[in-house]
Structure formats: C-alpha cells, structure tokens
Amino acid sequence: MPLDRIPKGSLVLVTGVTGLCGSVVADHLLKHGFRVRGVGRSASKAAPLIEHSNRTYGKDTFEFAEVVNAAAPGAFTNALQGVAGVIHVAGDMSTEGNVDLDENLQTHAASMIGMMEAAANAGSVKAFIHTGAMLSAFVAQYGQDMQVSLDTFTEWIIPTARTIPAEQEQMKWALTYAATKLHTEMEAWKYYREQKPNYAFNVVLPGFVMGPVANPAPGYYNTQGWMNDFFNGTVTNVTENAFNPSTWVTDTRDCAAIHIAALLSTEVSGERLWACSQVFTANEILAIWREAYPDRKFREDFNYPEMPKVELLGREKSTQLLKELEGRDWMSLKDISLDNVAQVAKN
C-alpha cells in the first residue's frame, strides 16, 4: 500500500495534541519527517511538549494553535491554513464531568462538522482522520462471542444512555461518552457522504488505550492514568468496568501508526480501521506485572466469568498498514503493560 498521499515535510494538524494519543501521534509524525501544528485549549499547558518536540526534531518542526472553544463558528479556520492533513484526536474531554447527553451530542457534532467544513474550505487538506471508538462498533457481553464488521454501529447506545439516572454517576458518564463518540462519528459520515469534500476521510477505532505518553508534562493521562492507579493498588469502578468484560487493548504507538497510515495511504479512503493491538484480561496484566516486579504487592486475580471472544473482521488491513509504516507487527501485551507503568514503577 503506497504511503505517499502527503509528502514528507508537509504540515499536519493534530488536535488533542497534549493528551495521551494526540501527543504520540504528533511524536510519530515528527519521526516520519512531517511538521506538526498541534491544537489544544491552553498554550501554557503545551509548553513542555513544544520545547521537547523542537529540541528533539529540530526548530520549528512543531507549532501550537490555541483553540479555546472547538464548537465556536470558525474555530479552526486559522489553524487549518496551509495544512496538508488533519488527525482529529480530540473530542471526548468536555464529556468528563458533564453528563448532559443532548448538550454533549450537539457540542461535539458541531465541533466535528465545523472542523470538516473548515478543512474543505482551506483547499490544501488531502486527508482528514478522525479518532472514533471501538464502542461505536460493538460492546462486549458475557456469553456472547461475536464477529464484528466495520459496518456495524451501536446505535442502541444513545437511547440507552437516556435511561440511566444521574445518580448512577459513573455509568451515566460512560454511556454519555460512548453515545457522544458514536453520534459524532455518524454525523461526520453523513457530512462526508452528502457534501463530498475534496479530501479522503477515515475513522480509526481504538480499543482500551494503554502505553507510553509522549508529552513530558506531568499529568493524568486518561486510561494510562487508570492503569497506573491499578498498578499502585487502586481500582475504581470505571476501571473495573473496562475489564468486565475486556476485549481489545490498544497501544498508544500502534494507535498513532494506524492514524498516520490512514492519513498517508492512497488506498484507504472513506473507511473505518481497527486500531486494536491485542486481546487482554486484567488477570493477564497482573501476571505480567507480578513477573516483572516480584517485590511489589499486587491485588489478587479478579473472579470474572470467561471472557467473550470478539473477532474483528477486517483487522488484517490495519495489520498490513502497520507493517508498511513501521516495519513491525502489533505491540505485545507484555510490552504494552510494562511500558504503561514504566515511570510510576520507579517511584
């Protein structure tokens, strides 16, 4: 698969650039010879990443554009000037702490469509890649093995999210998040098919994300932070829900690679792509940690039923793209589990 839709040295816009996946996407783009314009809500929070990137890859290879309100009209107009490609990783942060479903659906869809319109009007954008979610294609359940097509959408999530009372705070948040990701992706596909912008549009579907972060700034990086807490003996209900049942884990480096390959491959257009590294269980991760850190005390294994088997149809295309771009296969569960906690394990 030719990976030459955008020539090296071109400028690529990355939203959510200070976050877990966004920072790794930016880092890998720089490694592959592209320039990056990162987008976030706070330039001051991005300062360590800006300094690190320009020191590592050369002066002016990384720049930052502050967008405080992504849903505002024209929010991305200036940031998209001169950009050859877009990797839109951001899109879930405003959900945290906000369980108003309709507000989230409206805000995220408006931001997404506004950005797609701005990319079309910019005239220079050749490809637009959006970070979706595995939850938008399936939700695993005990006792139900499944084969999941990339054509599948979990449309039942939105009406289900409406039925969860606010008192069930964590479940309400989780379903609001899932419904928002689903709705945003579906609205994006509707815009793309109806308006036919002059760029390729693809959606990447990661699973439960683990692995290293590329932003040197101290902070709590979403699911990586959950796993660091788990390593240190804390398991929240949110984390346990991610294990119960568990299916596919996504390494941050694999996630970045699939986004970049989707951006560059001339044979990928108007498609969804899995970015799922390995199947996993919480007990397998505990076993890996116990072997690597025999002097540390870890909790006992979870007493879960047998996990459902979930086959991702079409994943072989993602595997091929990963090998074309990086010259390797998916990261192993051992490497993912150990690299996620490498820093906290030193404490």
Task: Give a structural overview.
By secondary structure, the chain is α/β, with parallel strands linked by helices. It has one domain: 3-Layer(aba) Sandwich (Rossmann fold), CATH 3.40.50. 41% of the residues lie in helices and 15% in strands. The chain has helices spanning 20-31, 43-57, 101-122, 157-163, 169-195, 222-231, 237-242, 252-264, 282-292, 315-326, 333-340; strands spanning 11-15, 35-40, 62-66, 85-88, 127-131, 146-148, 200-206, 208-210, 248-251, 271-275, 278-279, 310-312. It has a seven-stranded parallel sheet with strand order 3-2-1-4-5-7-10. Helix 1 (20-31) packs across helix 8, helix 3 (101-122) packs parallel to helix 5 (169-195) and helix 9 crosses helix 11 (333-340). The termini are far apart. The mean pLDDT is 95.
In CATH, what is the class?
A: Alpha Beta
The topology string of helices and strands comes to EHEHEEHEEHHEEHHEHEEHEHH
Which of globular, elongated, flat, extended, rod-shaped describes the shape?
Answer: globular
Strand line-up in the sheet with most strands:
3-2-1-4-5-7-10
CATH third-level topology? Rossmann fold
- Helix/strand class: alpha/beta
CATH architecture descriptor: 3-Layer(aba) Sandwich
Strand content: 5-15%
Percent helix among the residues? Answer: 40-55%
List low-confidence stretches.
none
Query: Helical segment tally?
Result: 11
Described by strand count, sense and barrel closure, the largest sheet is: 7 strands, parallel
Specify Rg, calculated over alpha carbons.
19 Å
The counted number of beta strands is 12
| Average pLDDT number | 95
How many separate domains? 1
CATH superfamily heading: NAD(P)-binding Rossmann-like Domain
Distance between the termini: 44 Å
